[in-house]
Amino acid sequence: MNRESLLKKFGKNVKIERIRKDLTQEHLAEKMNVSQKYISIIEGGKANMSLVKILELSQFLETDIENLLNFHD
């Protein structure tokens, strides 16, 4: 899997978990103290986040980091 595919799959996983928690992009952005546009960039597969930021994101989404890093179809 190439870098672009990994980022897109990660973004899709973030969106799935966000929707599962019944959060809007705006609400998640507020919880994370980032912009809604940044959440959109993550979900669009355009953000290459650090491991620390991914861990923080999983905590805000109240999900295991493995759910965000699951790259299997």
From TrEMBL:
Signal peptide (UniProt feature, chain positions): none
Query: Which Gene Ontology terms cover its molecular function?
Result: DNA binding
- Keyword flag DNA-binding: yes
Question: Which keywords does UniProt give here?
Answer: DNA-binding
Q: Which Gene3D superfamilies match?
A: lambda repressor-like DNA-binding domains
Give yes or no: UniProt keyword Transmembrane helix.
Answer: no
Q: Which Pfam families match?
A: HTH_3
Q: Where is the HTH cro/C1-type domain?
A: 14-68
> What name is this protein filed under?
Helix-turn-helix transcriptional regulator
Give the species this sequence originates from: Candidatus Limenecus avicola
